[in-house]
Amino acid sequence: MKVRGWLLAAALPLVAACAHAKKETAAAPAVPPPAPAAEVAAAPPPAPVIAAPASCMTDDQCGTKELCVASQCTAITAGLAECQASPHFDFDRALLRSADLPALRRAARCLNALPDEHAVIEGNCDERGTAQYNIALGFRRAHATATYLEGLGVATRNVSEVSYGKELPLCTQATEACWAMNRRTDVMKDAQPKDVTALLRADERREAKRAEAAAAAPASKTAHGRHPGHPRAAPAGDTGGTTAK
Fold first, then answer.
1. CA proximity to 167, closest of 140, 187, 137, 211
2. Is the distance from CB of 134 to CB of 121 less than 8 angstroms?
3. How far apart are CA 7 and CA 2, in angstroms?
């Protein structure tokens, strides 16, 4: 009986200690769960790599729809300045000069790359000769230019010809340099032909007055066969009229 009482007395402190430990454990604050990891934003896709224009020295080193501009292959567009061409001509001639052919080849390349584009070939002359002769000569120059372009593959339907004769000069000085500047054709894309009828008729009236003045001049002339002060007459042209350029 004493032994059982002793064991009971010894066990009571242990039970009390366990109860105290459980109470302390229950009183401890709960540890919050860890926060979820933040979502990492997806990296943007890499930017597309744009190839640099190919370097070049001639148009032939570029694609069929490109021109070599400033040593770079450049796409042909409607407003590209390098597509323009203005070949010039010798006095009273309608033959293309070799120096102007590279520019015309470029113009043809542009027209072939842009099949919906239309080109107007404008023929021009210098001031010498009659208005009608120059109109005819301007047409011959425009036709020579159009024929060359068509030979390079430009569709005939995409080219039209017009002549302005001497009515639309770029330069108005009576010098050889100025006359040479005016003897030209202009390859103008999507241009509207200009009406020079009024200018042409005014020129014809001035020519008629000069002819009347020459017919009424005294028979006595200078040693050169011209009345003093009368404008120099142009020599006979290849159509029986007066010569243009």
1. 137
2. no
3. 9
Instruction: Name the segment(s) of the chain with CATH classification 3.30.1330.60.
Output: 84-216
Does 1.20.1540.10 match the CATH number of domain 84-216? no
Kindly report the backbone phi and psi dihedral angles of residue 69, in degrees, each rounded to the nearest multiple of 5, phi listed first: -120, 120
If you count DSSP H runs as helices and E runs as strands, how many of each does the chain have, helices first? 5, 5
Nearest to 91 by CA among 17, 222, 184: 184
The distance between the two most distant Cα atoms of the chain, rounded to a whole number of Å, is: 180
Q: What is the pLDDT of residues 94-136, one digit of tens each?
A: 999 999 999 999 999 999 999 888 999 999 999 999 999 999 9
**Beta-carbon count within 10 A of 113 CB:** 18
- The token pair that represents 126 in the structure block: 């210098």
CA angle 116–117–123, rounded 5-degree value: 145
Whole-number Cα distances in Å, 178 to 14, 127, 237: 127, 10, 21
Label residue 219 by pLDDT band (50, 70, 90).
low
